[in-house]
Amino acid sequence: MIAFVNDLFVQADKAGLRLNDLSIQRGYAVFDFFRTKNYKPLFLEDYLDRFFASGELLRLKSPKSKAEVKDIIRELIRQNDLPEAGIKLMLTGGYSPDGYTPAEPNFIVTQHEIQLTSPEKFAAGIKVITYPHQRELPTVKSTDYLMGVWLQEKLRQEQAADVLYHNNGTVTEFPRSNLFVVTASGRVVTPSENILPGITRKKILELGNGSFDCVADTVTTDELKNAREVFMTSTTKRILPVVQVDDTIIWDGKPGAVTTKISQAFLDLEDNYIQQFTW
Amino acid sequence: MIAFVNDLFVQADKAGLRLNDLSIQRGYAVFDFFRTKNYKPLFLEDYLDRFFASGELLRLKSPKSKAEVKDIIRELIRQNDLPEAGIKLMLTGGYSPDGYTPAEPNFIVTQHEIQLTSPEKFAAGIKVITYPHQRELPTVKSTDYLMGVWLQEKLRQEQAADVLYHNNGTVTEFPRSNLFVVTASGRVVTPSENILPGITRKKILELGNGSFDCVADTVTTDELKNAREVFMTSTTKRILPVVQVDDTIIWDGKPGAVTTKISQAFLDLEDNYIQQFTW
Fold first, then answer.
1. Residue A26 sits in which domain range?
2. pLDDT tens profile A166-186
3. CA–CA separation, B262 vs B269, rounded Å?
4. How many domains does chain A have?
5. Does the predicted TM-score (pTM) go above 0.90?
């Protein structure tokens, strides 16, 4: 697989960063991740906007403009010749002489094989557990996953697929996915604050404006456990039903009608975007 | 400068990690940092113990035993031929095929030039600001410095030398240093919980047992601002007086007698250790 590092297309498995990069020394870096379909990048503008916004919030200035990044992505897709893949953009704190002060950022683009949610996995749904945690600077897509990576052992022990963070009685997000809840009264709600604003989440909120009532608001732990349907959203998972939270089975323990309807609407939106996309 | 990476002594400025190391991808790594004096590593056993404890807490198993790490340090000091320097040990999440699951850790030792606190800087003391923050997994010396690095811009704006974290009315630690307060009643206190247990802090607590009353306990924001003396401790700073916290001048705005006495006792302890040290 080919990657792009600073100014060059290189073999990804031979590319690296020197030891004094601030991502290695202090976990200081931002990234973003989107999918390609039929060699086209899905919702590219949204991901690029978020990537540049994350960089600005951490004061990491991209050495490439949005237009230049777009050209690099196009060339990378051409060289790797994978029609469906994930593409990761990264901007690190740079080679810091003192290992603490940010320097000129390193800019990296890599391409990855991905596995989408299978129909079988969708039909089965997943079990998640909850854990008290609040990410720092939550609107920034930083590489700060200390808690998410550390909790993988607990997930194995509890045979859960993911962990949902909560904070003062409200739930927020998964380490790499957003949360949606269909309440007992039929309202579709996704947490509004202290989260990373996911692109799949954004698209569903936009879809909701047309065909179903969908809002960003507070979601309490109680609302979650009494919900009729729960699902998570992410770039690689798209929409994935959650059928158990800790020891609580959600409603009848099966993916619900609203989740299925939203999932179909999202797939249609994806197809539409890809058909109309031009470089 | 020579560094040690996994199994080899290499040129530090040419050494690096491949892009899929979990330190780069997810900020998942532990480290430790100690000083050498006259080619000897200060309080080596304490630092090695903490390094191995951090690794265990993040489930990163060092590929080298403590005895092997000690031999590598000795050889690195010999090759770089710097009598007084800093040495950094690091253990990362390793080359992760999926960029999220921990793999076999990468083990790194690097040596660095350091600047100790000068008598002039000690005499002047420093201004610090406070900021609400609690590090995750605080007893682990992880590379999670997102907040500390991000706050550097605020330090520049407020012309402060460092930031002290607080949490629910109690103060905890600086990003890279511990806090000590001499209260109005003459008690020497360092925060007991939600901190990284510093080695300099540990040595001062041990010194305190003999010659002055020194304890680990809760320190409230009020106690801090009404204190007679405040100082910070770290491996490179040793003991550094804090004479201003936000807009509050501490007592008469000068380093106090207790701080000076503890600083001298610590320097004596250092000399003693180095004189007696044998490999």
1. 2-112
2. 999 999 999 999 999 999 888
3. 10
4. 2
5. yes
